[in-house]
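Quick one from the shared queue. A colleague (R.T.) flagged Terpene synthase as missing a structural entry in our internal table.

Convert sequence to structure tokens.
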Amino acid sequence: MKRKAHVSEEQVRRMILECSSGPNLHVKLELVDTLERLCIDYHYEKEIENVLRRVHEEEDDTDNHYDLHTTALRFYLLRKHGYYASPDVFQRFRDEEGNFTCDDNNNGTRSMLSLYNAAHLRIHGEEILDDAIVFTRNYLQSVVKHLQSPMADEVCSALRTPLFRRPRRVEARHYISVYDKLPTRNETILEFAKLDFGILQSLYCEELNILTMWWKELQLQDHLSFARDRMVEMHFWMLGVLFEPQYSYGRTMLTKLFIFVSIFDDIYDNYSTLEESKLFTEAIERWDEEAAEELPGYMKFFYKKVLTTMKSIETDLKLQGNKHVDYVKNLLIDATRCFYNEVKWRSEGADQVAATVEEHLKISVPSSCCMHVPVYAFVAMGNDVTTDDAINWGMAYPKIITSSCIVGRLLNDIASHEREQGSSSSSSTVEACMREHGGITKEEAYAKLRELVEESWMDIAGECLRPAAAQPPPLLEAVVNATRVLDFVYKDDQDAYTHPSSLKDTIHSIYILSV
């Protein structure tokens, strides 16, 4: 498979080079979009960057030569890659009543779908894109029942999750089946996408084999029966953040670390007393096996396993020459502090009187540990990509990471609200929102929180734009990827991590089914 894939990879590379020197903008954009949706673009980062840089350097008024689909696709790809593109290019597609019109009668649905996806890369204050989302959503909802596959599949997927927000490997699996049905498909690209998917699928299964043996050797289920056993789901989560083959060890490391973070969450949130939580936090801060002697029995065994695993990870990273080893321990210590701060906050009744959602988020954002996912990914990406300054920047909750955390916190709270009502951990941002707005219903609170989620996505899109972007694109992409997985896991008001039955088909398609 690898030999065949290498041949196809080079054939596709020649296509990109030939296309990039040609005059046809539509062909260039379609090729880049296809490679990205099939998730084989990581083989051609420099080539794609060169294509889009040249597209961006052209005058915006060149869009006047193109239809709505091409204009929207140009806007989408440039924004996705951090280039600013003006939303004013869509003004000429509006009629006197403000409706969006399509000059491509044969592919009106495709054009509206492209505009819908492009508009979801809006930033604050872009009213024309706000209007475009409302108009195109209504349009697509009205026509979807009359469409045939594969366009019907495309529209349904977009209405559920706009293209920019979909996890890369989930989208790759979906789009391979869509692209296979297109009469305009390129057989070389399709073959390479299928080969690459199979190669990575095999690698992911090898990683799961390693992780499963590690998990069984820990024997934690014998001592922590209350904790969620989610090895496969956690690995799926982490490959959503870093999917590329060169990060194989990083995925394994991240999965181990966040299995521990998940158990921390179960201990602090559902099982331990306040005093036990304090003892465990202090023991983690000491980072010393002797500290285990002061812990309850179930914590003592777990604590020692954490230290042993962390020592092994630190040894591996040092052998790889990773200069950021110390952050592995420091981030885990920070996670326990965040959990304990929330437990203490709740025990004092502060969560019950938080006057606003913003006030609640000051505590509940850190305890979501959504910052820790991308920052651990920074560590895993190694010296060629990451610096100490970048890791410290991430740990300081810059705007893009805070926004990612808000997406995760709010969607989690909405998904778990019904389940946790009446429990000791039930006072969430939902209750805070209901208090803030004078006792509105929970459904009204959900709607307001979803508005905050949309605003956070705008912040994320804005923070990725050059030249103001604070970090290199690979690090920002890790934050965006982490947010995509949060959106996927908590989609449709479900907590698919706690109740993973809804993930079964997706996981089966990523790890088992051949394409």
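The chain is about 65% helix and 0% strand.
The domain at 219-512 is CATH 1.10.600.10 (Farnesyl Diphosphate Synthase).
Added to the table.
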